[in-house]
Amino acid sequence: MKILVVGGGGREHAIARALALDRSIELCAVMSRRNPGMARLTARLLIEKETNVRRIVEFATGQEVEYAIIGPEAPLEAGVSDALEEAGIGCVGPSRAAARLETDKAFCREMMNAHGIAGCPRYRVFHDVQGAIDFINGYVGDLAIKPIGLTGGKGVRVMGEQIDRPQAIEYVRSLRGHVVLEERLIGEEFTLQAFVDGKHLVPMPLVQDHKRAYEGDIGPNTGGMGSYSMPDHGLPFVTDEDYRTALAIMKDAVSALHKEGFPFRGILYGQFMNTREGPRVVEFNARFGDPEAMNVLSILSSDFGDVLIHIVEGTLSPSNVRFEQKATVCKYVVPQGYPETPVMNALLTIGEYGGAFLYMANIEERDGILYTQASRTLAFVGLGDTLESAEAIAETAASAVTGHVRHRKDIGTTALLEKRCAHMRELQ
Ligand code: AMP
Ligand code: GLY
């Protein structure tokens, strides 16, 4: 069976590794820069913009690919999924219309509102500068300012946390007033990802990501510095009731899209804020999280290719999906200065990484030597029967990388987890 993977980051390397466990699968991939880790797993590689619909379809049909999975959001928005389907290739990754759940923050909120889906914060959509500014000036409290449209996860600014009112107004001006303004949610964030076949949804273990660049959650927002999950697939600051609420919200979103005539086939990613009043939706994504994909795919024990076929066929059921009862800790190694002033083209060497999984991301290999690029370089995932043992494996591996790079030492530590739990107790 031939499967195409679109994308070339850490997330896609994890997708490729999980698929390559089945020796009968032959992998092809399209990516904008060569990912040396993925290159070793794929029979054919096309270096091309991941939004070049025509070239991707030509490549896929030329290679006689049967199924495809889309990693990042940009190709979804470009309509790669629609075009592959039209060419007869079963695609895991929603149509452009269904992907608006992620690519259009106004669409997401309006849909939740129209279908009475729980967990939607109070929000207002604006398409004019003056209206948005008047709203900000009259608003009592903190606000999240969200550009409408894709920004690579770096576009949300929280007034009252990262910026003050005058800066918020400046920001809205720079966005020409195309924003969703919503109440600031306070709590602990968690990620719930699920496989979705248009109708049925099968959840994956909960994960917590770390967006801030530095230890102790300080510094600028990044694409995600690392993440962890627990052996029981839950998180200690998410109660069973919170979990059921979050899952019901995800299922309602899937039914709403189905009713609207845009069935969602692919990976649905729910970013939740666990607040004093229970889980609220920060956002939905129409794809795996990066890094969160690396946590869950490293412990997927069922055949991933088989799961993809069930998604395409619309026959997905919980019996198709099994995960090992293990903790996972993922740590991204990034260039020094990332995300604002990353040191690029700096040589790095990977040391002894023991039992960790290595996933390559934005890294260049020339004559067998590795160099940093502008974005996240590579990641290690440790697995263990406890969070502590998983963290130790990931930390040892990440510390063994030398060069102008760094990683967050606190991700997955018991101290940080205890801080999360204390924060949640404090809110209640
Ligand atoms: P996004 O680009 O939607 O992933 O948002 C990036 C980050 O902004 C989220 O992970 C949250 O930490 C924060 N954020 C987004 N919306 C809100 C909100 N309504 N309240 C508080 N923080 C938010
Ligand atoms: N880890 C956040 C994201 O993939 O959007």
Tell me what the structure shows.
- The protein has 428 residues and is an alpha+beta fold.
- The protein folds into three domains: 2-96, Rossmann fold; 122-183, Dna Ligase, domain 1; 188-419, ATP-grasp fold, B domain (D-amino Acid Aminotransferase, Chain A, domain 1).
- It has 14 helices and 25 strands.
- The strands form six sheets. Strands 12, 15, 18, 20, 23 and 25 form a six-stranded antiparallel sheet that branches.
- Helix 2 links the parallel strand 2 and strand 3.
- Helix 6 crosses helix 7 and helix 8 (129-138) packs antiparallel against helix 9 (165-174).
- The chain is globular, with a radius of gyration of 21 Å.
- The N and C termini lie far apart (51 Å).
- The mean pLDDT is 96.
- Bound molecules: adenosine monophosphate (AMP) and glycine.
- Residues 121, 144, 153, 155-156, 158, 182, 184-185, 189, 211, 271, 282-283 line the site of adenosine monophosphate.
**CATH fold name of the largest domain:** D-amino Acid Aminotransferase, Chain A, domain 1
Counting DSSP E segments of at least 2 residues, the number of strands comes to 25
How many domains would you count in the coordinates?
3
Small-molecule binders here are: adenosine monophosphate, glycine
Shape: globular
Span between N and C termini?
Answer: 51 Å
Strand content: 25-35%
Mean pLDDT across residues: 96
Coarse structural class: alpha+beta
Based on the model shown, name its key terms.
single chain, 428 residues, alpha+beta, Rossmann fold, Dna Ligase, domain 1, D-amino Acid Aminotransferase, Chain A, domain 1, 3 domains, six-stranded antiparallel beta sheet, five-stranded parallel beta sheet, 14 helices, 28% strand, binds adenosine monophosphate, binds glycine
